[in-house]
Amino acid sequence: MSAARPAIAIAPADVFAAASVIKLAIMVAAYQAIDRGAMSLDSTVAFDANDIVGGSETFATARPRATATIGALLRTMIRQSDNTAANALIDRIGFATVNRVAARAGLKRTRLRRYFLHFSKTHENETDAVDIATLLLAVARGARGESTQIASARSCRAMVNTLLGQEDREKIARGLPPGVPLANKTGELPGVRHDAGIVDPYGPRPYVLVVLESDLRDQSAGVLGINRISGAVYRQLG
Fold this sequence. Notes:
Blueprint: E1 16-17, H1 23-36, E2 44-46, E3 67-69, H2 70-79, H3 83-93, H4 95-104, E4 126-127, H5 129-143, H6 153-164, E5 182-189, E6 192-199, E7 207-213, H7 219-237
Antiparallel strand pairs: 1-4, 2-3, 5-6, 6-7
């Protein structure tokens, strides 16, 4: 990704409820801690009773004080968007650390303020498309050995490989030709549909695409819109 690629932004200053795309910042914070030796993928985390919530395909039935490894929590948080895994990682890493990592990466409007499915009218997790694109671009460059800005090359490759296993392929992925690799993270709330990814991260012409949508009356139309944007961008940049 060292060669210059066009940057296209529509309404870049719009701030959104982050939904699950903010799990990207949690993942980066975890890998920075791994790079420092503060923890490892084999380190274990115990679930607190408040961590265990719905939207958790793997860990919804976990019991308080049960444990899981950091590696398992990261995989399920990203690939299945497991909320219990995300909450357990927040407990281990800390809100302040995640927000500090985001700020140091140049993210200006991204804030992790609450646990997943602990809704609050005054404390919403927020982000914007430029912030998420900035974070993914740094990870993509790191994975290709072009930068160690965000984490070590090894950790960046691990993050990309985790994202390549994303199970939600309804949005950006559906707009791409069959077989094009996509390292992505989606997010959903009522009226909100997001997707953010690195298209063909190890290929000759990779690029980052982030689409955030809110205030949707028809959520299926929002998904279709992301499909169409993805296809249009690929035809120009792929």
